[in-house]
Design a protein that fits this description.
This protein has about 400 residues and is an alpha+beta fold. The protein folds into two domains: about 100 residues, no CATH class; about 290 residues, 4-Layer Sandwich (Glutamine Phosphoribosylpyrophosphate, subunit 1, domain 1). The protein has 14 helices and 16 strands. A hairpin with a 3-residue loop joins strand 14 and strand 15. The longest helix has 16 residues. The chain is globular, with a radius of gyration of 21 Å. The two termini are about 25 Å apart. The protein binds glycine. The site of glycine (GLY) has 11 residues, from strand 9.
């Protein structure tokens, strides 16, 4: 029997969502000081999505020694772009539905009030640097597709195959399991979209996951990554890394880079290359960036909305929560739809106050979204969620029996 990804999801989304506790969760987290600082913070300071944590220290030293804020932010995001095991950006990013990696990035340089962006770029891993090159070497702001790739090559960026063995095999797993109408047909915002039935954990689900895990093994996906690959097939991630940097004098810049939504239609752009959605920096006010459901963020111009909110006096936390509430409003508060999306904002005000806010606590129970911060002390803090619970709440994965793992390893 063939079970498509869509069929499968309709029988795997389970469990009541813990709704309505979000305001309390936000209040508690804010009171505890995690994920935000309402009053003026320290300068210099760098904030990034959680996947930038390992690269903050070197970038902070560079910034403290007088380095430019955009260069400091790029030092953070270039790390994951170069890491073949990081599947949300650059080399090793999960590809589009045809198995081709397409990358997006945008940046804003506060002191010079300039912006650069590239979208749908193939074969060039460091699109963060290409976005900066658009600022420095063109009179344009945005380049896409083949033109952006040719510009990058002309600027001396090496062309390479960005698909790794791991990302190729994960794509193959998706390819073998996907529904022919993934990303086609009514999307979440379409009136005809129907929520999957809320069916509790079942033998069919367990068997389905086990079969997928076994197929992952047959494809040669290494045991420690196998269940992650299964999850990425069932719930294609949007990955992404954002970083904003503020120096001692108050100069600031921001950058966001991504491989975008996994298995997307070729040519699909999310929010990351869209200045004002994936990233926005105003030298007079602050900087904000986003990871998560790009389609939703574009519709609320999230990063720009947040910076404007701060310009009008809101704290970073309130400014971010307001942008999240605009997404909720776009769906009339329908949590049957909202649970299939997620959004995290990383917010830095010119005085060093910051916040990390998210629509849901995380993609999986117990694994909160995180904001990484370095202001002399390097730390990773859970973001403050609007809603309690995980988006795309997924039941715990059953373990593949040890004997079967031995057989197929
Ligand atoms: N936020 C990344 C994307 O949706 O492409």
């Amino acid at each position: 029997m063939h079970i498509s990804r869509r069929d499968f999801i309709t029988t795997t989304v389970v469990g009541p969502l813990a709704l309505g506790a979000g305001a309390a969760a936000a209040a508690n987290a804010a009171a505890a000081g995690a994920g935000s600082s309402a009053t003026a913070g320290k300068r210099p300071i760098i904030v990034s999505s959680g996947n930038g944590y390992d690269y903050l220290d070197a970038a902070y030293e560079f910034l403290k020694d007088g380095g430019d804020t955009l260069d400091a932010a790029i030092r953070v995001v270039k790390g994951p772009e170069d890491d073949p095991n990081e599947d949300s950006v650059g080399l090793g990013g999960l590809p589009n539905e045809e198995g081709v990696v397409e990358l997006d990035a945008c940046c804003m340089h506060g002191p010079s009030r300039r912006a650069g962006s590239v979208g749908g770029v193939r074969n060039i891993r460091n699109v963060s640097l290409v976005a900066k090159a658009v600022i420095e070497h063109t009179g344009h702001v945005m380049l896409v597709g083949e033109g952006a790739e040719r510009f990058a090559a002309a600027m001396g960026f090496a062309r390479e195959n960005l698909l790794t063995q791991r990302s190729r095999k994960t794509w193959l797993l998706w390819k073998e399991f996907h529904s022919s109408d993934d990303w086609w047909g009514p999307g979440l915002a379409h009136p005809d979209w129907r929520a999957p039935e809320n069916i509790a954990a079942s033998d069919a689900r367990e068997q389905g996951i086990r079969r997928l895990a076994e197929r992952a093994a047959d494809l040669g996906i290494e045991p420690e990554y196998r269940m992650a690959a299964v999850r990425k097939v069932l719930f294609p991630p949007t990955g992404t890394i954002h970083c904003s940097a503020l120096d001692e004098q108050g100069a600031m810049s921001g950058i966001t880079t991504t491989s975008g939504l996994a298995y997307k239609l070729p040519g699909r752009l999310g929010d990351s290359p869209v200045i004002g959605a994936g990233c926005f920096t105003d030298q007079d006010v602050g900087s904000a960036g986003a990871t998560g459901s790009g389609e939703e963020n574009i519709k609320v111009a999230g990063a720009h909305t947040i910076v404007e909110n701060m310009r009008h006096g809101m704290s970073p936390l309130d400014a971010g929560m307001d942008a999240l509430k605009r997404i909720v409003r776009n769906y009339g508060g329908d949590k049957q739809r909202l649970r299939f999306m997620d959004m995290t904002y990383y917010i830095l005000r010119k005085d060093g106050a910051y916040a990390g806010v998210s629509l849901w606590e995380g993609y999986e129970p117990g694994k909160p979204h995180r904001i990484a911060v370095h202001d002399g002390s390097q730390r990773s803090e859970p973001t403050i969620p609007l809603f309690a619970g995980a988006s795309q709440e997924f039941p715990p994965f059953p373990k593949v029996p040890a004997e079967r793992l031995k057989e197929i390893s």
